[in-house]
Design a protein that fits this description.
Elements: H1 2-31, E1 36-42, H2 47-57, E2 67-72, H3 83-92, H4 113-119, E3 123-131, H5 135-138, H6 150-158, E4 164-168, H7 189-194, E5 199-200, E6 213-216, H8 232-243, E7 250-256, H9 258-264, H10 268-292, E8 295-300, E9 304-305, E10 309-314, E11 319-324, E12 330-331, E13 335-340, E14 349-352, H11 353-364
Parallel strand pairs: 1-7, 1-8, 2-14, 3-4, 3-7, 4-6, 5-6
Antiparallel strand pairs: 2-13, 8-13, 9-12, 10-11
Helix pairs in contact: 2-10, 3-11, 8-10, 9-10
Bound molecules: zinc ion (ZN).
Length: 371
């Protein structure tokens, strides 16, 4: 009897050791991979745009991140990218030509981060201050050969797996016969969207408790942050409240779309206002990630706009008094990236935007990341 017990003992010990390894091995593996991913894109946001925001604000939420790096942004065919090619790189991990929205150079659809996430049963959403059909958000859920195909992108939104859609752009969803429509057909996509989720057209109509939401708050882009009575942070909070109900997790894109627009206009006050609005939204996501864990946050830009520099001002009085621009367009300057949460260590150093996109997809799919 005792001899038999002695024989079984090593088997029991081995089994227990194996189970411990299995449980803790899995735990540490899961700790390295995020359940939720929030990507922030400051459109056109270079180092000087952040500098100007920091001078005016004092302290930014961006300073809460411990991991940071730089990103090269060129597209497949040009040194100076546009938002479509850059956003495609971030959303699919692949380079493409300027104006392409998540299609390859031979115009084949490229699978996006959102499409991978939806296959895993996760919820997806976008919150932008442009039209929701704009190139940057569109690259996460649509596939068109040219970013100007807003009407086609709107149609793809209706047929996509998106759970939250907040921004402007209702002009592309209403039939040609309706006043204010920019469609060339009589499709009523707002009606189609309503069969999938509640649709509201003004901020004060945002519902409290819903599982999905489309809030199209302006005909095209949203008003500038200075001209609206709600912040990007409030829109972000509404999106996270809905998406975080999914136990399998979510992937959310937030875009400060108008940092770019102010920089095209060489309007430094506009850049500062949009930067502060964007940074507030970053704080909302960061608070969520700190409280709930398992959330990877990435903040970066699609490209730099304006060749912008701060020439004078005062930290004491929080004023930017003199700035310069080298162009009314985009530049090839690298853009910053900030990361927090599981997998964040992948985003330090100098990397290309397509490599960043691939790393985000690898983390989502819990794949080993190749350097
Ligand atoms: Zn631009």
């Amino acid at each position: 009897m005792r001899a038999a017990a002695e024989k079984i003992k090593p088997i029991i010990v081995c089994t227990v050791l194996f189970l411990i390894l299995l449980i803790f091995g899995n735990c540490s593996r899961n700790d390295n991979y995020p359940k939720n991913i929030i990507i922030y894109i400051g459109d056109g946001m270079g180092v000087a745009h952040i500098t100007a925001g920091k001078i005016a604000r004092g302290t930014l939420n961006l300073e809460r991140f411990s991991v940071s790096g730089m990103v090269t942004t060129h597209s497949e065919n040009e040194l100076i990218t546009d938002s479509a090619a850059a956003s495609t790189a971030l959303a699919t991990g692949r380079k493409t030509y300027n104006r392409a929205v998540s299609v390859s150079t031979d115009k084949k659809p490229l699978k996006t981060l959102f499409e991978f996430a939806e296959e895993l049963g996760k919820s997806t959403g976008v919150v932008v201050t442009s039209s929701v059909t704009h190139a940057t958000p569109a690259a996460f859920f649509a596939h068109v050969e040219d970013r100007r195909q807003h009407a086609d992108i709107a149609e793809q939104i209706v047929n996509s797996g998106l759970d939250v859609l907040i921004g402007g752009g209702w002009t592309y969803f209403i039939p040609k016969s309706n006043e204010g429509s920019r469609r060339q057909d009589n499709k009523n996509l707002l009606k189609s969207l309503e069969t999938r989720m509640p649709v509201v057209l003004s901020y004060d109509k945002l519902p409290g408790q819903v599982k999905k939401l489309a809030a199209l708050l302006a005909p095209d882009g949203l008003p500038k942050s200075a001209d609206r009575d709600y912040s990007l942070a409030e829109l972000t909070e509404a999106a996270i409240r809905i998406l975080s109900k999914n136990r399998k997790g979510f992937v959310l894109l937030i875009e400060g779309s108008q940092i770019d627009w102010a920089a095209h206009k060489q309007d430094h006050e506009g850049i500062i206002a949009e930067m502060i609005d964007f940074d507030g939204a970053v704080g909302t996501g960061f608070d969520f990630a700190q409280k709930h864990g398992s959330t990877l946050i990435i903040v970066t830009a699609d490209h730099e706009t304006g060749g912008f520099a701060v020439h004078d001002g005062s930290i004491k009085t929080k004023q930017v008094t003199s700035t310069g621009f080298t162009t009314t367009g985009h530049t090839a300057s690298m853009v910053p990236i900030f990361a927090f949460g599981p997998g964040s260590s992948q985003f330090s150093g100098i990397q290309d935007n397509a490599r960043i996109g691939q790393a985000i997809i690898d983390l989502l799919l819990k794949r080993e990341i190749k350097n």
